[in-house]
Amino acid sequence: MARQFTVDGYNPFNGTELKKNGLYGKINKQIVHLTYDRTDDQNLKIGPKDRQQLRGLIESEIIEFAKWLRPPDDEVWSHAMAQRTGES
């Protein structure tokens, strides 16, 4: 679980209940799960607008998560990001 790497107070996705978000349900039904619930209706499948929303959620959460990392994980993260951007 991600919280084992963070200081107290970290609240993923700013407390948004992703399971109550319609996008969560769409993802769950389209990931390879054994289910009779999978949809064939193109209007219910994840589309470009959903992908854009997902990307924004994930990118924002990565930034927020990094702010809450506890030592020594915060240093590992900073070092990895610096290497990635060529700032080492």
Structure description:
The protein is mostly helical. It is built from 3 helices and no strands. The model has no long low-confidence stretch (mean pLDDT 83). It starts with 21 loop residues before the first helix and ends with a helix. Helices cover 48% and strands 0% of the residues.
- Structural class call reads mainly alpha
**Total individual domains:** 1
Q: Give helix and strand order, one letter per element, not per position.
A: HHH
First CA to last CA: what distance?
29 Å
Number of helices: 3
The count of β-strands is 0
- C-alpha Rg, in Å? 17 Å
Biggest sheet details: none
Any descriptors?
mainly alpha, 88 residues, 0% strand, 3 helices
Briefly summarize what is shown:
With 88 residues, the chain is mainly alpha-helical.
Per-chain topology:
Blueprint: H1 22-30, H2 48-67, H3 73-85
